[in-house]
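Revision sheet: structure tokens.
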Amino acid sequence: MPAPRKTTLQIVLEAVNRTVAPFAVIKRSLASLQRAGVAAFAAIGGAIKRMGTTLASLAGPLAAIQAIRVGTEFETGVAKIGTLGEEARGNLELFRVELERIAVMSGTPLDDLTDALFNMISAGVDPSISAIKTLDEANRLAVAGSASLSSSTLALTKVMNAYGMSADDAREISEVLFATQVIGQTTVDEVAQNFSKFTAIGKSVGVSLEELATAFGDITKDAANSEEAATSLRSALTVLQKPSSDLEKAMRNLGLSLENLFDDGRNLGEVFSSIKKESERIGVPLAKVVGNVRAFTAASTLASGEGSRFTTALDNFREATTQLDASLELLDGTTERTLSKFREFMKVLAARVATPWMREINEHLVVTSGHLQEAKIRAEIFGLEVVKWVKQAQPFMDFLSLAIASLSVAVRSAYGFGKILGQ
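Predicted:
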């Protein structure tokens, strides 16, 4: 016999009875949760307030430590320059003042400038005001071309050494390197990194600095990248110095030798154009005459248009040598550069403030030991406060877990209520 159907009233009453207990648990849990939350957040607030007081009391000592760190790093960098000889040691105060000036005026990091000056003097630049002049120009080139100071420093010193130039020529060299980037498909950083690969061979062959730079800039348009262009140019200059048998024959037919390559005003493009014409006359491909596969890209570029392409590139290069100052002025006025100058200004101030402390550091170490003990006690107290806060927050976490469990019971009850209604 089928069970009698329950009335609506019976169903509602049964549902109410099933849900009273879990919802009562939820209510109690939420009330406890609220109380625990208030206590926990009060504890957090107190801990944060005490932490703020502790950090505020440590702000002064931390600022002093930072100032000392900046000052000691700079002092160490300058002292390192003094290891390069007696003359360098005699100019350390000059170097200190000038390094600070360049850093503040340009925004270039003080430690980068110090490293660059060390490397410059190591490379043979006179350890005097001459080194500062060269550094100034290397830095101008780096800023104007958004290049690394280390790369621009390397390029300047290599050119100076290869061509027997001095610090008085540093501005001309920096303008040459910048103009190379203007006429080529490259960057100042890539020019600076690769220029030293062919300066020595260029000088030994007798190529002028402006023709050497023009050749490299123009070849970058045909080569896969700046490194390949530098390798190809170096190889092309090397074959002029040590020609293959085919090239030696072609040069002899042209009346050319290493000693007279650039007589009568011939430029590098006209030299390779003459070689290309001779290779066509004797029916031997230019690649075979050159005899070096890596030199072919440079040789074919330089010979292009019977040398007219190189002549045009040389004219463009000479016009571009005046563009460094304009680019420097443009970049120097950016917000980023202004912020960099301010940053370096603050570092210089910090180093100056720290100098008296560093001179008497041994005397202050005795006092500092007492302060260190006090700081350790403060740190321990702060650690205990953190532990206390964690313990005070534990009820909050416990009641949160209880609330989740109660909600789970409520969901199950509601599910059962739904089943009752469906009967």
